[in-house]
Fold this protein.
Amino acid sequence: MKRTIVFLIPFFIILFCSNIFGSEIELIEPIGTNGGINWTSGIIIAKGSGAPSPDVQNPAQGRILAKRAAISDARRNLLETLEGVRVASTTIVKEYMVENDVIKTRVHGIVKGSKVTDTKYMSDGSVEVTVSMSIKGDLLSLFLKPVEKKAVAPVKVIEGDTPKPEAMPEKPVAEPAPDVKGTPESKVAKTEEPKAEEPKAEEPPPLKLPDYTGLVVDARTLKLKPALIPRILESSGKELYHSDVVSPEGAAENGVALYSRDLTAAQTNSRVTNNPITLKAEKVSDKSPSDIVMSDKDAEIFRAIIKQKGFLKQCRVMIVID
């Protein structure tokens, strides 16, 4: 019996995530015991429950109070889930909240405004509630441009308070004129003629790309960790795709990137359709489990995309991982 219970615990965790999130091709990451994040839809979900008070005589009133308690419990679990979400690299939301009181206050406000997406009334009078919120919009905007903790007034410097000592003019030293007489012609300094500039090596013509509508990065088998603000790098470590490449409006509206567990599903996602380009990631960055490194060949294609296409500004990027 004990062995059966141990087996059933992971089964119920998987079943819980499948029920609240849905499709198997979507990338779902459980966080804690009562919630998780759907990296494909960009939705964070948590569950909570509330029991009826034994002091309430009216069953209807008991249900109302139980539902209210369930919503409060679900939002506490949602906050706990959100705190464990990776923002970039190895940094999670909770670390931003600890360091910045403004971000902490705004995160609490966003969680408080989360939507109740499902309510179940149990036969014993208890209530189970599911709440959800998007990673896009107000939440993501907090991390794209971190909020200052406190504005510091610039220090004014009034000229003339501390007069600088005047520099004493130096007397010019007369140099003896060169004795041109008797100087061999070969030793007389000649004015050098300017050398003709060497022709610069011609730059290779830029790659001409088809009318791509989005980017799909295949990062399967690389053990990449999803994050709110992932980066795509060259092999040298130079950034190709990061928060400065995208428009703040596009990132807030769409998310910097979304994820899928299925390549075909990613290529047909409305985010990148109807003609996305697919590039294969070379590896995951040694410094960050959420950053992708491209080969030199694909980095060249990526640079051409940045110059010629506008879809990266609108964050039309899907990343495929296991």
Observations:
- Residues 214-320 form one domain.
- The CA atoms of residues 260 and 266 lie 6 Å apart.
- The first helix runs from residue 2 to 21.
- The first strand starts at residue 28 and ends at 31.
